[in-house]
Amino acid sequence: MEVVIVQDAAAGGQLIADSIADLLRRKPDALLGVATGSTPLPVYQALAARVRDGAVDVSRARIAQLDEYVGLAPGHPESYRSVVEREVVEPLGLDPDAFMGPDGSATDVQAACERYDRALAEAGGVDLQLLGIGTDGHIGFNEPCSSLASRTRIKTLTRQTREDNARFFDHLDDVPHHVITQGIGTILEARHLVLLATGEGKAEAVAQAVEGPVAAFVPASALQLHPHATVVVDEAAASRLKLADYFRATFAAKPDWQGI
Prior knowledge:
The protein is an alpha/beta fold. It contains eight helices and ten strands.
């Protein structure tokens, strides 16, 4: 696992946007896995700036959702499809038809999960998957004790996760209890995993995921099993890493052309 410590969230966004831009130059029709929430916003903002400046062409790029609430109407402003359209598709000027996502309003949710898992494979797989990490170590909505081999499926959210997400809703009671999420096994099939974490509140989860054992109790620790996983953290999120100085020195010694 490659760990990169940056000064702040903006620097992390710039670094990851550079990696995505480089991928799109090499593979213009790359399939990008996107995450929601406040953490990845600096990435999307930095990438949109590159598009406006003509530094990267996203006209053939495709994007795929990591997860979706179950039971929200398709046009609900906090459905993850709406969030991705608002924060990624529109700012980047992407073709809406290039947007893949699970159907959280399906009558048969299990069948919708299986269809989405197949669709990702039929699309050639995700080239770069952007991830966040929960304060309990979850990725996507794979809560602690999720199977490390799990596929796209319906999950029940813990109260802690619902409380973490309540800031996007009027009341905690409005936060859905269930989601469709790519499973850990599905996530690990992406060619490059990039996890971004910022703030002291994520420090313990980052330390457990990076330096702890691979364990279902810390789902993000599964990234240790991936051949190309990059964890980008700001100084606050890196504050509990025992090997922080080593990670700083290792990244500083990399050739400029190598990227992440």
